[in-house]
Each structure stands twice: as C-alpha cells, then as structure tokens.
Design a protein that fits this description.
P-loop_NTPase; 35% helix; ABC_transporter-like_ATP-bd; 241 residues; ATP hydrolysis activity; six-stranded mixed beta sheet; Rossmann fold; alpha/beta; cell membrane; globular; membrane; single chain
C-alpha cells in the first residue's frame, strides 16, 4: 500500500475562461497532517475543490487509496470516507446544531442513533457543540460555527479530513482548542489536509507541507524543515515563521 493516501499528478483546473491550476503535483502522506500554504490567489482552495469534485480537473489525475477519483462526482467522493470543511463552513443556519450533526451522520436517522461514544468524544473536543445542541446554528459565533463544521465532518469515522482555513477569524483561545482537536484527530489515525494562513497554526500542527504559487506546488517537504529555514520562508511566502 502506498505511503500516500491522496496524490495529485499534473492537475489542471479551468473555471470558465480562467486557468487556475497549472499542473499541481501533491502528495498527502497516510496518517499525517499536511499543510497547504501559499499567498492569496495561489490556488489552494481550488485544489481542495478539485479533489472533492466540486470543480472538475481538465487534465491530470487525482488518486485516493490507489483508486482514480478524478472524474467522480462529489457524493461519490464523500462516500469514500473523505470529509470536507469549506472556508465558508457550509453550516445550515436555520437548523439547530443537533440537526446539522444529524445530516452528516449518514448511519443515523435520529440524534439518538448517532454513535454515543463518538459524540461524547466530539463534545470533549468542542464543548460548545454540546452546550448549544438545541440552538439555531445561525446564532453561533464564528468560532462556534467552525467547531460545528469540524464536528459535523468527523461525526462518523473518516479516513481523510480536508479543511480550508480552520483558524480564519478565530480568537487565540479558540485556535488553541482547534489545534488540540486536530492533534487528537491525527493521533486517532485520520489523515488531514489543511489550507492555512495562520503560520503559527501550521508550524504547531504540520508534519508535511506543500507550498503553492500561481497554481502550482513550488515546494514540498517537512513542516519542521520549512519552519527552521527563514530564507526559504521568505522566498516562498514572503514572511518568516
């Protein structure tokens, strides 16, 4: 079995008349947390949406667990035990927290049928989800909505978790809570791919890193090596960790 759970080879994506991805090569090692970094407009979100089939690759190949998923539709990809948390979180504002969770729990028809042990684990990771269980999701704060979005993605066991900017707009205390949650998820064996702009978040969590620029991956390696190389950081990201 390959050490990489997810692989992109020469992936191009067009959106209308715009050519966004220009041959993305990306490896997501099994059981590790991979950070996808890059300046705004580098193509990070488009890469995630292409993996999930929300936008179709016009060239190249996406492979998950050794199977070609390039032409699969989003529901088929989700059924492969891949969960995706978009940047806008995708919360159903008019539904309660419980109802949002139930929609994601495909094996349950009522909240009582959701795996109680897993739910208890999620409540321990994100106490706000339990506290506001019967509360309209649209009334939650930004940080609470992000916690709900991640909780919904992991309400059933997933092999791959893909999250777009989980720390965006969050207070430092909530970011620390989110870091702890992802560390526990990784320890449980989940493979994680994160897009991040918060470099401290990336440095504390990442095992592997890929840096994008102008629709391509321009650097890949260990997160620790990038964190310790100020000159490389400056060249790739225009900043120092």
């Amino acid at each position: 079995m390959s050490d990489n759970l997810l692989t992109l080879e020469g992936v191009h994506t067009h959106i209308g008349a715009y050519h966004i991805l220009h041959g993305v090569d990306l490896q997501v090692p099994r059981g590790q947390l991979t950070m996808l970094l890059g300046r705004n407009g580098a193509g990070k979100t488009t890469t995630l949406r292409t993996i999930m089939g929300l936008w179709q690759a016009s060239q190249g190949r996406v492979t998950f667990n050794g199977a070609d998923i390039t032409k699969k539709h989003t529901p088929q990809i989700a059924q492969l035990n891949i969960a995706y948390v978009p940047e806008n979180m995708g919360i159903f504002a008019d539904l309660t927290v419980k109802e949002n969770m139930l929609l994601a729990a495909r094996q349950a028809r009522t909240a009582a049928q959701i795996d109680t042990q897993r739910l208890a684990w999620i409540f321990k990771l994100f106490p706000a989800v339990e506290k506001f269980w019967n509360y309209p999701a649209g009334k939650l704060s930004g940080g609470q909505k992000q916690m709900l979005a991640v909780s919904r993605a992991i309400v059933e066991p997933r092999e791959l978790l893909i999250v777009d900017e989980p720390s965006k707009g969050l207070a430092p205390a909530i970011i620390n809570n989110m870091i702890d949650a992802f560390q526990q998820l990784k320890a449980s064996g989940v493979t994680i791919l994160l897009v991040e702009q918060n470099i401290n978040f990336a440095k504390r969590l990442g095992d592997h890193v890929a840096v994008m620029d102008d629709g391509r991956v321009v650097h890949a390696g260990s997160m620790q090596a990038l964190a310790e190389d100020a000159a490389l950081q400056q060249r790739l990201l225009g900043l120092s960790l």
